[in-house]
Amino acid sequence: MCFSATASFGSAALLIFGGALCTTHAMKNDKTYLLLAVTPLLFALQQVSEGVVWIGYNENLVSLTAASSIFYLFFALFFWLVWIPIVAFSLETKKWKRIFFIILTIIGFIFGLYLWIPILLETGPRHLIKTSVCGHSLCYITSDYSLFAITTGHIIYSLLGFLFLLSSNRIFIKFWALVMTLGVIVYFTQRETWVSTWCFFAAISTLWIYFLLINYYKSKIEKQPS
Fold this sequence. Notes:
With 226 residues, this protein is mainly alpha-helical. The chain has one domain: Rhopdopsin 7-helix transmembrane proteins. Helices cover 76% and strands 6% of the residues. It is built from nine helices and two strands; from the N terminus they run αααααββαααα. Strands 1-2 form a two-stranded antiparallel sheet. A hairpin with a 2-residue loop joins strand 1 and strand 2. The termini are far apart.
């Protein structure tokens, strides 16, 4: 993330531990939350990839930097736009909202491909020119690195994120509201490195899922007749 390979690999280790706790808890107590529970593990994989980006950049290994950047951006630009509505769908009980999240998954899939495929193919209006350091954070500079293009992309991306808050599941809403709040704060404080910095804070915020699941299970036990 923002500072070094150490920060990325350290956060990944923490997420693997937290993700293992979440997954174990969900498997044991309520498998409904399994997709949400494994989310920290997926963020851990993304953080590992950015740690490799740092290594490639610091050692001036152009091929490694490019390949790991493309893999990192797969998560940032495509995967989360698909995975998060799938998680929301898995937790949804209202029929019309389940349909709504299916639609959002399809939209996220299409928009995500629009964002990421040019980077993968290294061609087109959004292909990755270079990975650089802006301040103390990584920034991924694409060929449409203009204020209008970046702002438009961010608005659409954020709009989809806010729509996920229409979930009926309180645990998901609490978690995702934190992620979006951090996204807004980072956007107005570190816009150039928004992709890297927000993903880091979103990753760390997934550790809250464990405590949300623990509290949910405790309240569920307390409500049961003695």
